[in-house]
C-alpha cells in the first residue's frame, strides 16, 4: 500500500471512530434522560394544560415553562403542513411499531395521541438527538482545537458523555439539549472569530429559552486580547438587542396562563443544602437499579475538585474570566429559582467548564497518580516486559 493510500485509510478510520463515538455517546445521553423523564408527560390533573409536550406545543402550559415552547410549536406547525393523507400514512407507520411511544412517550393519554401530536413528538425527539450529536461534535472540535491528540480527544468526548447525563439526575427537559448546543456552538464561533455565525446562532437559540441573553454577556470575556474593545461591545450590543426582541416574542401572549414568570425555591434550596444527608444522595438516572452519586456526593465532588484545581492552573486568563462571567449571574438565579441540586441549570457555564477541563485532560494520569507514581508505574511495566525474553529463553 502506498503512503498516500495508507493516509487515506487512516483518515477514514479516524472519521469512522469519531462518527461511531458521537452516536454511541449521544445515545447514552439522550436515552438516559428520556427513559427517566421523557417529555414530562407523567402529569396529573389537566394534562393539556400541564408542562407536558402537548401543553407546550399548544401554548397552554403554565408559566414559565410555556416561554420555552418555540421548538415544540415549530414541530407541531411542520406536522400540520403535511397533506392529511401523508400525515395519516406517517401516523399508521408510527402506530405499527410505536417503539418510541412506549419507551419515551408512554405517559401521553390515548385521547391526545393524534397524528399531529405523534408526528410532533417524533420530530422533537429527532431534534433532541441531532442537538446532542452536534453538541458532542463541538466538544470534540474544542478538544482538537486546544492541542489534544486524536486519542485524547476521543477519550475526552467519551468522558464528557459519561458525566454530562449526571446533570439530569433531578430533572430534565427537551429544551436543555437545544440550550447546550446553542452555548457550545456560540462559544466555538467566538474562538474561531466567526461572529456573523455566532450572531445567527444567538438569534435562533434565544428563541429556546428566555435566559439565553446571559450567553452573549459571558462571551464578551472570551474574545482574544487583540480584538478591540469597541468591537466586543458592538457585538455584545447587537446580541443583547436580538435577545431582547426574541425574549419579548417568546414571552408574549401568555398572560392568562397559570403560573408565574419565575418559580421561587430559595427556602427549599436552603433546607436541601443545609441537610448533611443531601451530600450522600444517589440517583438511578442511568438505569433501573443502577445508582450513581449526585455531583455533590464525595465520590464525585472530591475527584472533580482535584481535577479542576489542577486544570485551573494551566487555564489561560481569558478562559477564567469567561468562566466567572458565565457563573456569577447564574449562581443567584440557581439559588432563588433553581431546585435543590438540578445541575442542568448551569448549562450556560458548561462551555467554560469544558475549556478548563481541556487543560487537565492530557495530564489526567499525572493529576490522579502523581508524577512519581506515574514514573514508578512505567518502570514496573518496563521491568515486566524485559523479563519476558528471559522467561522464554529459560522455557526453551
Automatic annotation (TrEMBL):
The keyword Membrane applies. The keyword Nucleotide-binding does not apply. Keywords: Membrane, Transmembrane, Transmembrane helix. The chain crosses the membrane at residues 12-30, 119-140, 147-167, 198-221, 322-339, 345-362. This is EpsG family protein. It comes from Paraburkholderia caballeronis.
